[in-house]
Amino acid sequence: MIRVSVNGYGTIGKRVAEAIMLQPDMELVGVSKTSPNMEALVAQSKGIKIFSPDESSKKFEESGIKISGNIEDMIKYSDIIVDATPNGVGAQYKTLYEKYEKRAIFQGGEKPNVADVSFSALCNYDEALNKKYVRVVSCNTTALLRTICTLSKLGKIDKVRATIVRRAADPKEFKKGPINALVLDPATIPSHHAKDVNSVLKDLDIITSAIIAPTTLMHVHLLNVTFKQQIDKEDIVSIFLNTPRIVMVSSRSKISSTAEIIEVARDLGKMRNDIREVVVFEDSIYTKGSEVFLTYAVHQESIVVPENIDAIRAINGISADESIKITNTSQGISGGYII
Amino acid sequence: MIRVSVNGYGTIGKRVAEAIMLQPDMELVGVSKTSPNMEALVAQSKGIKIFSPDESSKKFEESGIKISGNIEDMIKYSDIIVDATPNGVGAQYKTLYEKYEKRAIFQGGEKPNVADVSFSALCNYDEALNKKYVRVVSCNTTALLRTICTLSKLGKIDKVRATIVRRAADPKEFKKGPINALVLDPATIPSHHAKDVNSVLKDLDIITSAIIAPTTLMHVHLLNVTFKQQIDKEDIVSIFLNTPRIVMVSSRSKISSTAEIIEVARDLGKMRNDIREVVVFEDSIYTKGSEVFLTYAVHQESIVVPENIDAIRAINGISADESIKITNTSQGISGGYII
Question: Whole domain around residue B165: which residue ranges?
Answer without folding.
Answer: 140-298
